[in-house]
Design a protein that fits this description.
With about 200 residues, the protein is of the alpha/beta class. Helices cover about 35% and strands about 25% of the residues. The chain binds S-adenosylmethionine. S-adenosylmethionine (SAM) binds next to α1.
């Protein structure tokens, strides 16, 4: 499983997450980022072209060495300094109040202890700092939810620990963030059980 997760999943992620259909969502979620940004689950750096000019620096948190290697071209042409500053969103190596914004795109599904990771994001954001997110998760329809719960064990094995049925909005609110805006919708890239998206901005108190 270690070899599959370390050497295969980052390539799958690079291709699947790099689909053009995701570009408008990346553009929407990155809009409004500014100042010092921490990006959780940086992957292969597919958000880099979408950082707005107001972003001053990015601290990338990414456990997969191969993901970071696949980001090389995007890092070379990045308009802002980006450093791989952490390996695990569940334990961020930054002092309190270090960042103005946090970014997470299709990562909250995979971090094992997502409640701890969100508590860490809240800790490292300044008061009033914003968490920008687009995540797949629990669908709004009970019929789709039933399939998400059924298929979740298979998804976790095939997709490197990815969960289909996390309630993204609920998890963020339970971590103490105030939801400033959230749009929950079905995307166009895949079947509903995997393409129920939550896109929004939450504010750290
Ligand atoms: C589906 S990929 C999304 C990658 C990227 N955010 C994107 O939009 O293309 C999920 C990412 O979360 C990373 N990840 C897994 N566990 C993590 C953890 N504990 N902390 C931070 N990132 C993690 C994976 O290595 C992977 O790069």
């Amino acid at each position: 499983m270690g070899i599959y997760r370390d050497r295969v999943v980052p390539h799958i992620v690079n291709v699947a997450c790099g689909m053009r259909a995701n570009d408008p969502l990346r553009e929407r979620v990155c809009a409004g980022l500014s100042g010092r940004v921490v990006e959780l689950g940086f992957g292969s750096g597919l958000n880099v072209p979408f950082y707005p000019p107001a972003v001053q620096s990015v601290s990338a948190v990414e456990p997969a060495d191969l993901g970071w290697k696949l980001a090389a071209g995007r890092l070379a042409s990045a308009p802002v300094p980006i450093e791989r500053a952490g390996l695990d969103g569940q334990s961020l190596p930054f002092p309190d109040d270090s960042f103005d914004c946090a970014l997470s795109t299709w990562t909250m599904c995979t971090i094992p202890d997502i409640a701890s990771a969100l508590a860490e994001v809240r800790r490292v954001l300044v008061a009033g700092g914003t968490l920008h997110f687009v995540e797949h998760g629990l669908a709004p329809d009970p019929g789709v939810q039933t399939w998400q719960h059924r298929l979740n064990p298979i998804q976790k094995v095939l997709a490197g620990g990815c969960n289909l049925d996390r309630d993204i909005r609920g998890l963020i609110e339970d971590a103490g963030f105030r939801m400033r805006e959230v749009d929950i919708f079905y995307g166009e890239a895949g079947p509903r059980f995997i393409d129920a998206q939550s896109l929004g901005v939450a504010v750290s108190p």
